[in-house]
Amino acid sequence: MHNIPRMMIVAALAAGALVAPAVSQARTDFSITIGPPPPVVEVVPGPRHGYAWAPGYWDVRYSRHYWRAGHWERERRGYYYHEPRWVQHDNRWELQRGRWDHRDDDHDGVPNGADRSPNDPHRR
After folding, report:
1. What backbone torsions phi and psi does residue 79 show, to the nearest 5 degrees?
2. 42 by DSSP, 3-state: which?
3. What would the pLDDT profile of 25-36 be if each residue is shown by its tens digit?
4. Which of 76, 77, 85, 120 is the most exposed place for a label (fewest CB within 10 A)?
5. Boundaries of domain holding 92
6. Residues 115 and 106 sit within 8 Å (Cβ to Cβ)
7. What phi and psi values does residue 96 have, to the nearest 5 degrees?
8. pLDDT tens-digit profile of 45-85?
9. What angle do CA 116, 120, 121 make, to 5 degrees?
């Protein structure tokens, strides 16, 4: 009988561990009124098999911009990498963080992995 509550706690923690990775990958866009400074010039290293270069960008902490250096991201098969970027909307600046998206080579809204013919040249 004493093991039942303990087993329930272990099961709840395990379920939380399975959910946590999905939550940690959520986009965390935000906006501020101060635009980013010009980009810092970085030397991009040569190609690295199985990795994509994620360029550096201006991030914000305590209402101040700070430079985050570029780094390697492990490639994800069937995905492509969107670089982080700042977009201006009226008087606000929004940071769109880097992220991986499904490839959609024929731009029909269906990711290649679920598309019956992802490279169909006749598709509109």
Report:
1. -125, 165
2. coil
3. 445 456 688 889
4. 77
5. 29-114
6. yes
7. -105, 110
8. 999 999 999 999 999 988 889 999 999 999 998 888 889 99
9. 170
